[in-house]
UniProtKB/TrEMBL annotation:
Location of the region described as Disordered in the Swiss-Prot/TrEMBL record: 67-87
A family per Pfam: TPR_16
Entry-linked SMART domains: TPR (SM00028)
Positions of the DUF4236 domain: 6-56
Record protein name field: DUF4236 domain-containing protein
Coiled coil stretches, renumbered: none
TPR repeat feature ranges: 170-203
SUPFAM superfamilies (alphabetical): TPR-like
InterPro entries: CellSynth/LPSAsmb/PSIAsmb (IPR051012), DUF4236 (IPR025330), TPR-like_helical_dom_sf (IPR011990), TPR_rpt (IPR019734)
The entry's keywords: Membrane, Repeat, TPR repeat, Transmembrane, Transmembrane helix
Length: 327
């Protein structure tokens, strides 16, 4: 049986001061027999031991804070605490300037010259990180995220577009797709949704947004293929999201001047739905329109009147009912 090789090395720099190297990273500790303070890959810690016995304990100094923050939020949903747009893994890097600052503060009372040296390394390192391509990309990501959070969509589009010229970040493709969709730039929205689906072809939400952008860009045939694929392969028969997909699929056929196929598609939706939300109202409106275009005026009136009773300004429902002699 093969066993993993554990690498660990400790080097003495001065009285009570050691640099510790391991597979997980580097750290530094200060103290003597019985108690030491240090900073390692897992953060700041305090270790206590009984000399000659092999008994020791390590207490990470931020452990109690982590416990406190986690227990105080047990009643909240984890989704509420999750960052909707975390820093991409490709932009993360080891922040050694901050480590140098921590080490400087620890060493300052004992080795002031070494502390000055560490401060110089921290300042130089921070400048180097900021001027690197990864540093610039990280700053642009933060700027774009801030603009997005504040609702400045134009700035977010501009910053994220520039960021992708520096580094490819698939995580940003659907966000840019949404931003261009909001700005009625449907072709650009399609391009970004398509790029994301090249990396993650099974993402149903992005597939739907891609198909919707294609429809709005008048690329009905391709939109129809994707809407049908979602209905046939991605959503179960009981999934409430189907009504939205069925509506847009039917609308594609209507816009292709094929009301017969549109009606066949729409009849597979919740025709007898009693409670109408926004999605079902859109479905009922399209169903009534399809019946009207197929010359089945009585059924068209039935569905259009349901919509009219909920919202007289819903699309052109009042105009359709007027044409049918019901207003």
């Amino acid at each position: 049986m093969f066993m993993g090789i554990r690498f660990r090395r400790s080097m003495k720099l001065g009285k009570g001061l050691r640099v510790n190297l391991s597979k997980r990273g580097a750290g530094i500790s200060l103290g003597g027999k019985g108690m030491r303070f240090g900073v390692g890959p897992k953060g700041a810690y305090r270790s206590m031991s009984i000399p000659g016995t092999g008994i020791y304990a390590i207490d990470y100094l931020n452990k109690s804070n982590r416990k406190k923050s986690s227990t105080s939020k047990t009643a909240r949903s984890t989704d509420n605490n999750k960052d909707p747009l975390p820093m991409p893994q490709d932009l993360k890097s080891f922040n050694y300037p901050s480590l140098c600052i921590i080490l400087m503060l620890i060493l300052l009372p004992f080795l002031p010259i070494a502390s000055v040296f560490l401060l110089a390394i921290a300042v130089y390192g921070k400048k180097q990180l900021a001027n690197s391509s990864k540093g610039k990309a990280r700053d642009k990501f933060k700027t774009g995220k801030k603009a997005l959070t504040e609702g400045d969509y134009e700035k977010a589009r501009e910053v994220f577009t520039e960021l992708l010229k520096i580094q490819e970040i698939p995580q940003l493709y659907p966000i840019l797709g949404e931003l261009f969709l909001k700005n009625n730039e449907y072709t650009k929205a399609c391009n970004y949704f398509e790029k994301y689906l090249d990396h993650n072809p099974k993402h149903i939400g992005v597939k739907f947004q891609y198909a919707l952008s294609l429809k709005l860009a008048n690329n009905f045939d391709q939109a129809i293929n994707i809407f049908q694929d979602i209905l046939n392969n991605d959503l179960s028969k009981e999934d409430e999201s189907r009504v939205k997909v069925i509506s847009h699929l039917g609308d594609c056929f209507m816009k292709k001047d094929n009301p017969e196929l549109a009606l066949e598609v729409l009849k597979s939706g919740p025709v007898r739905a009693r409670k109408l939300d926004e999605d079902k109202m859109y479905f009922k409106y399209l169903l009534g329109l399809a019946y009207k275009e197929n010359g089945q005026n009585d059924r068209a009136i039935t569905h259009l009147q349901r919509v009219y009773a909920h919202d007289t300004n819903f699309y052109n429902v009042s105009q359709l009912l007027e044409e049918l002699g019901k207003i």
